[in-house]
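Follow-up to my post from last week.
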Amino acid sequence: MDALILSRIQFGFTIGFHILFPTLTIGLAMFLVFLEGLWLKTGNEQYRRLYRLWVKIFALAFGMGVVSGIVLSYEFGTNFAEFSRATAPVLGPLLAIEVLTAFFVEAGFIGIMLFGWERVGNRLHFVATVLVALGTLNSAFWILAANSWMHTPAGFEMVDGQFHPADWWAVIFNPSMPYRLAHMVTASFLTVSFVVAGVSAYHLLRGIATDAARKGLSLAMWMALVLAPAQIFIGDLHGLNVLEHQPIKVAAMEGNWETRAGAPLLLFAWPDEVAQANDIEIGIPHLASLILTHDWNGTVPGLTEVPPEDQPPVAIVFFAFRIMVGLGFIMLGLAVWGAVARWRGRFYRSRWLQRCLVAAIPAGFIATVMGWITAEVGRQPYTVYGLLRTADSLSPVAAGAVAWSLATFVVVYALVFAAFLFFVHRVVRNGPEPAPDKRQDAPEAMRGARPVSAVVSPAEGD
Amino acid sequence: MDLTLVLAGVIVIAVIAYVVLDGFDLGIGVLFPFARTTAQRDLMIGSIAPVWDGNETWLVLAGGGLFAAFPGAYAVALPAFYLPLMGMLFCLIFRGVAFEFRMKATTTRWLWSTAFAAGSMGAGFLQGMLLGALIQGVTVLDGHFAGGTFDFLSWFSVMTGLGVMAGYALLGAGWLIIKTQGELQALARQWARIALVATMAAMALVSGVTPLVHDEVAERWFGGWNLAWLVWVPLAAAALAVLLWRDAGVAERRPFFTAIGLFLLGMFGIAYSLYPNIVPPSVTYWDATVPESTQTFLLIAIAVTLPMVLVYTVYAYRSFRGKVRPGQGYH
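User reply:
Got it. Predicted complex:
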C-alpha cells in the first residue's frame, strides 16, 4: 500500500474515532446545563444526583475528545501538507477561531466545572457549565463551516493553485453549511437522548436509584420523541442540498449508475465498480425519485455521468448511508414505542422497552459515524470537491512511516477505548450517588464520590 | 505595518505560552516517579488537574495558528518531523487520558500513573527533539520538504530533547514549591536544584554547539559588534540560574517565575538565531505566510478573542489559587 491510501485510512480512522466523543459531549453538555438549571430552579435533589452522575461520564468523554482532537490539528500537516498549503488562506482562520473561541472556553471552564464547585459556589459553577456547553456548540459551528467548505467551496478565488479568500461570509456560510451543522448538532442531541435513555433503563432493570433513573428516562424519551423525527426531516433537507451540489455523491448513496427518471429506492444492492453496474438489486420502484425530487418520475443522477476515476468508492457510500438511515428509523420506532407506553401508563414498567433501549445505546454513535463516512467517502476523489484531488493533497511522507503510525494508532486507540468503556461502565454500574439523607447508610456507593476516602485508602496505592 | 511580523509575534507568543504552561504540567509527569508516596502523587496530579487542559490548548493554537498564518512552514515542517510529531501525539494521548482514568481506577491505578509519567517524559523529550531538529534545519526544494524520514534524528536533537525534559522538570518543581507544603515541598526544592543543573548544562551545550555548526548563527552572535549588545543574554541566564539555586531552598513563588525567565531567554536566543527563517535554512516568515486578506481577518479575530482568553485563563487559575488540597484531583 502506498502513502496515499495509508494516510487516508489513518485520517479516516483517527477522525472517525474522534467524532464519537464530540457527538457525546456536545449533547451531554447541554443535558448537564438542563439538569443543573432545573436543580437550581426547583431544588429537587434528583436533578443534582443526575448531574453528578453524568458529569463523570462527560469528564471521561471530554478527555478522550481532547487527546484525539489534538492529533487532527497536526495530521493536516503531517499527512496532507499540500492540502494544507492550498487551503490554509481560507480554512486556516476558521480553525484558528475555533481554537480561540471554543477550545479555550471549554478548557478554561471545564476545570471549574469538574473541580471547582465548592470554590466558586452554585451560581458561578452554573455559568461554567453553560460556557462549556456553548464552547462545544461553537466548536461544532466552526469545524462544520470548514468541513462544509470542502464539500461546497464558495467565496474564494484561485491564485497560483492556492485558494484565496474573496468573501468571508460566503466562505463560512457556504451552501451546505447550515444543513450539515443542523444535521450534526441534532445527531449529537439524539445520540445523547438514547445514551441517557439506555443508561436510565439499565438502572431501572437493575433497581439502581430508581427515582433518579425514572427522571432520566422520562427526560430522554421526550427528547427522543422530538428529535428523531426532526433529524429525519433535517436529513432529507440535507440530502436535497447534496443532490444540488454533489449529484455524484447522491448517485453513490443510491447505488444509481445510469441517470434515469423514476429511479427505484434500492433496499439492497451489490455495486460493482468494474462493471459500472449493480450485481443484485432489490428496490421499491419510483421511490428514490419521489424522495429526492418529490416527483414520481423525477430524474435521479447516475454515477456514469463522470468517468470512473472521478467517482467515489460506491459500495462504502451505499452501505454506510443505508446503515445510517436504518438506525434513524429504529430510533424513531423506539421513541414512538416509548410514547405509546407512556400513554398507556406502562412507561416505567415495560421491561422489553427498557431492554431494547439498553441495546440502542450505541445506535446514535454508529449512525453518526456512518453519516460521516457517507459524506466524506462520498466526497472522494477530492479533498476540496471538484477542485483539489486527494492524490494531490498528500504530504511528501514515506509509506513506512505512515504504516507505523497507523498501526500504532490502532493499538493505542483500542487500548484507551477499552479503558474508557471500562470506566464508563463502572460509573454507570455504580449509579448516581445516594440522596443526601441516605449517605451514611451506603458507603459502597460513595466510592469516587468522596475523594478523600480514595486518597487515603492504603489498598489502592500505585 | 508589516502584518507578517505581527503574526509571527502571535505564533511566538502561543509557542511561549505553550512551553511555559504545558511545560510545568508535563514537568509534574517527569517528576512523578520520584515522589515517595501515593498521597504525594495525588497532590502532584491534583495541582494540575483543573488547568492542564487549558495549558495543552496552546499547543492546538500553535499548530492551528501555524496552519492559518504560515502554511508554507506548516506544510514543510510537519512532514519533515513526521515520526517525532506522531510519537509526541501518542505520548500526549496516554498522559491526557491518565488524568481521568487514574482518578477512577482502583486496581489499575499503577498502570495510569505509569502512563502519565512515561507520556509526560516522552512528550517533553520529543518536543525537545523537534526543537533540535528545527535548529538543524530542514531540506527544502521549491518550498516542499525533500529530506528523509529520519533526518530529525541526531545526537544534537537527542541532547535538546533531554534538555527540554530537564527544563520542564524545573518548571514542574517550581510549580510544586508554590502549590504544596511540608514534605512534598521539601522534595520539590531538591528536584528544582537537580533539574536546574541539568537544564543549564543543556542550555550551555546548545548555545556552544549551534554557532559551531551553523556559520549564519555564529555571524549573528559574534559577527561585528553584535556580541556587544547581545552579551546580556548569557549573563542574564547565568544570573537567573544563581538566583534560582539560592531561592530553591527558601522562596515560595520566585523559583517558578525565575525558571520561566530562563525559558524566555532560551527562546529569545533561538528565535533570534533563526530569524528571518521560520524553518531554517531557507523558508522565511515572508515565504511561508498567507495573502493579506487572510492576515487581516486572522489578526482581527485574534485581537478580539485572545484578550478574552487571557482574562478567563487568569480567572481559572485564580479560582484554584493557594496550596493544593487533598482530594482536589477528584470529582
